[in-house]
């Protein structure tokens, strides 16, 4: 878990990310749309269980924290299951990132403090020392690493969801050839299916039939209503969708490899950068991060980053 930058939805990942503007890419859309879509379709957002611990710090807090005795994190709680308000609009922040941030703070024997901001305010908040780090679904890109440090925390990539009766038919990407697939409009996931058309042709198979929708929630409806046989989403979002539509949707594992890494961001060359990298490594080794992932309905192997 070494230095190295969101995706609140792209993966949604849009093909042309900016230093800041692509994060809540892994977001189901922009904040208001994400909340509305999830409330409409992915009902049942509930707070994830807090990570278990011994209640004792296992490492000394590093120097340089913005507030003594506190680890301050910039966060935009608009994307379940990574970060979201447990009651929908305010109050406690739940999700993998929130729970992992609390575990990191506890590891150092300090309190976790969340500085809520919009997505566009995450990096400025970090650079102006409003917070010590960003723990908020940002993926590690060259553009971000040019202006900040990051420590890898999670692997992400595209995943296929389908009805339980048919999910087992999709084992490789070529198994999508000739089938109807829903994707969010103008996303990298949609582009991936478009690119797959040429691969299918070369393999002597029919092209996949891609239908794009403005909202991620609409891709779910397309499968539930039988308009599409499968949908493509990030593995993080896909796991949550399946958990909220149990018996109706399931993830077809291993169709695409994980190709994106999420990171915890710190200021460039800040003393906190190596400290956070080491702490995340220790929390991975002792199983804390895997448990937090599982508690948040995610595949525990997504935290197995280099």
UniProtKB/TrEMBL annotation:
Keywords: Signal
SMART domains per the UniProt record, alphabetical: PBPb
One of the Pfam families matching this protein, by short name: SBP_bac_3
Entry superkingdom: Bacteria
Signal peptide start-end: 1-48
SUPFAM superfamilies linked: Periplasmic binding protein-like II
InterPro entries: Solute-binding_3/MltF_N
Residues of the Solute-binding protein family 3/N-terminal domain: 70-300
Protein name per its UniProtKB record: Transporter substrate-binding domain-containing protein
Organism: Arthrobacter ramosus
Native organism taxonomy: Bacteria, Bacillati, Actinomycetota, Actinomycetes, Micrococcales
């Amino acid at each position: 878990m070494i230095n190295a930058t969101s995706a609140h939805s792209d993966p949604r990942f849009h093909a042309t990310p900016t230093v800041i503007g692509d994060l809540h890419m892994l977001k189901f859309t922009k904040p208001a749309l994400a909340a509305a879509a999830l409330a409409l379709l992915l009902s049942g957002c509930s707070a994830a269980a807090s990570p278990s611990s011994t209640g004792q710090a296992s490492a000394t807090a590093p120097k340089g924290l913005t507030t003594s005795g506190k680890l301050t994190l910039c966060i935009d709680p608009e994307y379940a299951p990574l970060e979201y308000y447990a009651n929908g609009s305010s109050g406690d922040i739940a999700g993998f990132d929130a729970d992992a941030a609390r575990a990191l703070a506890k590891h150092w024997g300090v309190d976790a403090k969340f500085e809520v901001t919009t997505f566009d305010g995450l990096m400025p908040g970090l650079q102006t020392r409003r917070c010590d780090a960003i723990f908020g679904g940002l993926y590690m890109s060259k553009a971000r690493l040019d202006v900040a440090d990051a420590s890898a925390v999670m692997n992400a990539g595209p995943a296929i969801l389908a009805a339980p009766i048919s999910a087992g038919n999709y084992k490789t990407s070529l198994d999508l050839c000739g089938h109807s697939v829903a994707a969010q409009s103008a996303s990298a996931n949609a582009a991936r299916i478009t690119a797959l058309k040429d691969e299918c042709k070369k393999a002597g198979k029919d092209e996949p039939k891609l239908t794009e929708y403005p909202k991620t929630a609409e891709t779910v409806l397309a499968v539930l209503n039988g308009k599409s046989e499968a949908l493509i989403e990030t593995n993080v979002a896909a796991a949550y969708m399946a958990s909220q539509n149990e018996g109706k949707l399931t993830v077809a594992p291993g169709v695409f490899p994980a190709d994106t890494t999420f990171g915890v961001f710190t200021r460039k060359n800040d003393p906190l950068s190596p400290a956070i990298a080491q702490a995340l490594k220790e929390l991975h080794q002792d199983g804390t991060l895997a448990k937090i992932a599982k508690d948040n309905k995610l595949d525990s192997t997504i935290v197995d980053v280099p």
